[in-house]
């Protein structure tokens, strides 16, 4: 404090303002000795804290390490004691409310679908990096077309994408008929599931599907684009793919 301030204080004391000046003096001393920068505020609105900062930078993942989701898991499918397809609960959200349907049925079916993803996620991501097809789309199509590996076509032919054979001169063991004598009902036979995934990737490189590459990793546009390009005749095909992707968080594998 300078001399002028001291003289003013003494004058105030003489004039009966002791209390007011004492409060002012104590406040001035406190502010001078405790001056500091104001606390930083995060975008979330909370006062700066390592806890809140860490929470804002944390991304919660459904699948964890997407590069290897099969490690440490028992991929043997549980016994299924219901009449519904494996993917039924993924594409029909109201099925659980149907009479006679129990939560246990849904749990078993969804476990089978999760096992399918764990088995083939690495293949789908590899195909994505090589051919530019979102892994979420490949996995969703595999789940839908093969009923999570439970369809007769996928079990007998290793054909997980409903790949047909239109050749009239194919050799024995190249394809088989699953319905009647019409040649259009012949489906390809593969030595293993990987060949089926590779055949699917190559199919989507053809001219009719070429425009889909402009969608990047937008799985919704891909789903509707596949339907419009004629991959399937089911009018709800795109919506089924999207339901499967979002129910199982398959978009995480597009990273």
Give helix and strand order, one letter per element, not per position.
HHHHHHHEEHHH
CATH topology description of the domain at 68-161 and 191-254: Lysozyme
Shape: extended
Number of helices: 10
Mean pLDDT across every amino acid position: 81
- Proportion in helices: 40-55%
In CATH's first tier, which class of the domain at 68-161 and 191-254 applies? Mainly Alpha
Low-confidence stretches: 35-59
Question: Largest beta sheet, briefly?
Answer: 2 strands, antiparallel
DSSP E strands, number: 2
Task: Examine the secondary-structure arrangement and name the CATH architecture of the domain at 68-161 and 191-254.
Answer: Orthogonal Bundle
Question: Topology, please?
Answer:
Elements: H1 3-14, H2 18-33, H3 50-56, H4 88-91, H5 103-131, H6 135-146, H7 152-157, E1 175-177, E2 186-188, H8 193-203, H9 219-229, H10 237-247
Antiparallel strand pairs: 1-2
How would you describe this structure to a colleague?
With 255 residues, the chain is mostly helical. The protein has a domain at 68-161 and 191-254: Lysozyme (Orthogonal Bundle), CATH 1.10.530.10. Helix content is 47%, strand content 2%. It contains 10 helices and 2 strands. The chain has helices spanning 3-14, 18-33, 50-56, 88-91, 103-131, 135-146, 152-157, 193-203, 219-229, 237-247, and strands at residues 175-177, 186-188. The protein has a two-stranded antiparallel sheet with strand order 1-2. Strand 1 (175-177) and strand 2 (186-188) form a beta hairpin. Helix 5 (103-131) packs across helix 6 (135-146) and helix 9 (219-229) runs antiparallel to helix 10 (237-247). The radius of gyration is 33 Å and the shape is extended. It starts with a helix and ends in an 8-residue tail after the last helix.
């Amino acid at each position: 404090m300078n001399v002028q301030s001291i003289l003013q204080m003494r004058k105030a004391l003489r004039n009966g303002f002791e209390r007011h000046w004492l409060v002012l003096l104590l406040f001035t001393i406190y502010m001078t000795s405790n001056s500091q920068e104001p606390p930083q505020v995060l975008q979330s609105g909370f006062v700066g804290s390592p806890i809140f900062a860490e929470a804002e930078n944390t991304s919660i993942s459904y699948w964890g390490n997407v590069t290897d989701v099969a490690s440490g898991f028992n991929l043997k499918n549980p016994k299924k004691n219901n009449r519904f397809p494996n993917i039924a609960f993924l594409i029909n959200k109201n099925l659980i409310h149907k009479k006679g349907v129990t939560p246990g049925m849904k749990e078993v079916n969804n476990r089978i679908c999760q096992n399918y993803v764990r088995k083939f996620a690495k293949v789908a991501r590899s195909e994505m990096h090589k051919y530019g097809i979102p892994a979420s789309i490949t996995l969703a199509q595999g789940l839908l077309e093969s009923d999570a590996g439970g369809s007769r076509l996928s079990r007998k032919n290793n054909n997980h994408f409903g790949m047909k054979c239109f050749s009239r001169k194919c050799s024995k063991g190249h394809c088989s008929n699953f319905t009647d004598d019409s040649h259009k009902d012949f489906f390809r036979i593969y030595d293993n599931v990987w060949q089926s995934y590779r055949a699917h990737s190559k199919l989507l490189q053809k001219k009719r599907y070429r425009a889909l590459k402009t969608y990047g990793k937008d799985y919704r546009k891909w789903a509707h684009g596949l339907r419009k390009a004629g991959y399937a005749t089911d009018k709800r095909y795109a919506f089924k793919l999207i339901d499967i992707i979002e129910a199982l968080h398959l978009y995480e594998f597009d990273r």
